[in-house]
Amino acid sequence: MSAHPVADHPCFSAAAAGRFGRVHLPVAPQCNVTCSYCDRRYDCLNEARPGVCAGVLTPEAAVDRVERALEATPAITVAGIAGPGDPLANPDAVLRTLELVGSRFPRLHLCLSTNGLMLPDYVADLVSLGVRFLTVTMNAVTPRVGAQIYREVRWNGTVLGGEAGAGRLIERQLAGLAAAVARGMTCKVNTVLVPDVNAAEVGLVAAAALQAGVRLINVIPLLPVPGCPGGGLRPPTAAEVERVRAALPAGAIPLRHCRRCRADAAGLLGGGHGCMGDADDGGRDGGGDGDGGGRQGRWQGRRRQPQ
Ligand code: SF4
Ligand code: SF4
User: 3-class SS at 166?
Assistant: First the structure.
């Protein structure tokens, strides 16, 4: 079973949320999945409210951002990567960022949120870099339901649609979660509740997560983004969200304090530090250009997920 939430991670422990903060590092612009509710001009809906990300950072600029965030909010205990695309669709930039931030700020917890497609390939790397906290967003475990949410899944150079794509994603999410738990990571599952699509599926997602060893389930209400294919989907009411949380299977622990933060949020949850504010200071593809001084990190040159 996934380790218990620790007392100083604001997302994994409601008790910690008012006392400790996190800084998100937007170093991951690409994604390998197309969710019907996502508009790529916006932050990842799996983790974020749909505000435009202020800018993608290079790994080196991300280190500076952590420095400044800690100056502004010393209570920050977590450095996380949650987009604006999928972190593991940007492995060069993400692994290098984790390496740099982990060595410069050893007291911080390292945290990552992913759609899980590439997770089985990177669990060992994440653990070796000291990433202890992991979130996987799973919106379905039944391919028929998943196909109504995931329009495309790009894996190994192939574009998979419909149930084939959803099925591959689900299979990889569950394998990745089990591997992460086996390696001692503290994991949670986020589920975007799309009321007319997956309301009846969330309990099954939680049951599958439990079987993989994960108890923390964060049911996130859909925030429709106008202009994308799922822009017309209706968001759930507060009562619907609560009904779904209350119906989770025995053993699951529902989280209720998620603030749907931006991919560049920093500070206490909901504390008004939604964005660090400065523009792109390092190029849109953070993985390729190193630090400008010729130093090659351990994670430079890793294979890149075909988009
Ligand atoms: Fe958008 Fe996130 Fe889905 Fe990728 S995983 S398509 S960034 S919501
Ligand atoms: Fe934590 Fe939720 Fe914000 Fe992620 S989106 S940092 S889980 S509160």
Answer: helix
The residue nearest atom 2 of ligand 2, judged by CA position, is 258
Q: Which of the listed residues 111, 133, 259, 262 should we mutate to test ligand 2's pocket, taking the one with most ligand atoms within 8 A of CB?
A: 259
**d(C-alpha 223, C-alpha 205), whole Å:** 20
- Closest ligand to Cα 117: 1
- Beta-sheet pairing, 33-35 with 150-155: antiparallel
Residues of the chain with pLDDT under 50: 2, 4, 47-52, 272-307
pLDDT tens track for 236-277: 999 999 999 999 999 999 988 776 666 777 767 765 433 333
84 upstream amide cis, omega within 30 of 0: yes
The pTM for the full model equals 0.84
Does ligand 2 lie within 6 Å of residue 261's CB atom?
yes
Digit-coded pLDDT (tens) for 67-90: 999 999 898 999 999 888 899 999
| Residue 145 beta carbon below 6 angstroms from any ligand 2 atom | no
Give the residues surrounding ligand 1 with Cβ less than 6 Å away: 31, 33-35, 38, 44-46, 85-86, 115
